[in-house]
Amino acid sequence: MKNKNVFMGVLLISIAVFLILNQFGLVTPGISGWNIVLGGFFVGLLIRGIADKSFFGIFFPLAFLWLIFDDVLGFREISSGTVIIVALLLSIGFSYLFPQKQRLEKKEMKWEEYENGDKVGEHQRVVEETTENSVYCSNTFGATTKYINSNNLQRATLDCSFGEIKAYFDNAVVQNPSVEICVHVSFGSVELYIPREWTVVQNANVFAGSVNEKNRNCSDGRPVVELVGEVNFGAVTIIYV
Prior knowledge:
- With 241 residues, this protein is of the alpha/beta class.
- It folds into 2 domains: 2-97, no CATH class; 111-240, no CATH class.
- 32% of the residues lie in helices and 31% in strands.
- The chain has helices at 2-23, 33-52, 56-73, 80-97, and strands at 111-112, 125-130, 134-140, 143-147, 155-161, 164-168, 178-186, 189-194, 199-202, 205-207, 210-214, 224-232, 235-240.
- Strands 1, 2, 3, 5, 7, 9, 10 and 12 form an 8-stranded mixed β-sheet that branches. It has a 5-stranded parallel β-sheet with strand order 4-6-8-13-11, with no helix packed on it.
- Strand 2 (125-130) and strand 3 (134-140) form a beta hairpin.
- It is globular.
- The two termini are 28 Å apart.
């Protein structure tokens, strides 16, 4: 995460220097300063998307770069709406073909169709797998609630696409100094109900989404929850209980 911050910082400083040189007439690329700023920003997002293997972080920056430099590069004129829709469809399509699900050490996960003991909708799919110290939950096209009960939780992975996951960690015990919660959210929402004694460190990659906190925690510094993964066109809400 620090390397990414350094890269974005250097990129933005380089753009600022370029704009100053452009104003003094020392650099005249024939492209407007604002296009340079926007282009540099989206190039930075593109490089981060490639590094994170995030299809939303790849196709959407490419789409905006297309729109910014279509006249300069001589691209065939295509409406802005079409370019954005194409980027959206490609992002979703490639995400389905190459999902970034974390593999568990135990047996292969089984498909289940349930939600709080009841059958879910025809198109909803809920996948759950729990080991001694790992939890995995995936939900597509629907809503599900996951209660985490563990005496030594080390990692939890939550995948949500076009749906909603509510995960309750108030009955989980963390024996190590830290625990990792990995989220993959695309056009959905995840609510994390975290004990107010825990400290959450936000390291997830967010593209056209948000990570928010509700209520106040009163942590003594242990355990530390590292929130990782990616949020694309979705939201993660951390609720201290």
